[in-house]
Amino acid sequence: MPYLVITLLEITFFDLDTVLVENDRKIYKIKISKGLDYVDLKTKGIFNNGYQANGWIYIYWDNFAIKKVEYELTAASKAQRSRSKTLFDTYLNHKLVINFMEYNDRMYTNYIYYETPKLVNVGKQTNKPQTQEEKETRYYSTIQEIVFTEIVNDKDEVANALQNTWDPDLFSPKPYNKEFWKNYNTLLESEEEEQLIEDLTQRSSLFEKE
Length: 210
Description:
Largest sheet: 7 strands, antiparallel
Number of helices: 7
Radius of gyration: 22 Å
Shape: globular
Order of helices and strands: HEEEEHEEHEHHHH
Helix content: 25-40%
């Protein structure tokens, strides 16, 4: 752990930007910026050095609990900027957002967002400028999101749940689970989205395949 902290301090600077107020509660807004050294992801067999950190940390004034983290890694060195632009058409390599919620004087993870660019097809390299359509078919970013909507503190319930077989790959495709979605809290942003979901559900044949 001490080594991790020292390394983090070498590659990242933290500066107080401002103090926000939310629901009469003060929040420190901390700026994450590049440190003295480049970030090296140490990916085996791949040159993945030359990044710099950027982002924000939001911390409650009264108890110093972290409310939110927004973190990005962007290509910074000349070699990495050239590699990232050629392979991904972007300098952004990783984007991470984590929200925390307070419950019974403790902080719990509420939402995780992760984004990273992916290369669809290397293809033949030419000096001819690419059209927007060619870029959209060659490059894309994967986005993964996890929303936690329930906190379970019952030790017996947690112990029973841990007896189940868990797949460590949270983002792998799973078969449709009718009972799960029947009881799951669906996040709706508008009445239009709610109506759209109802329409799609009626047309879907997923229930027939169950």
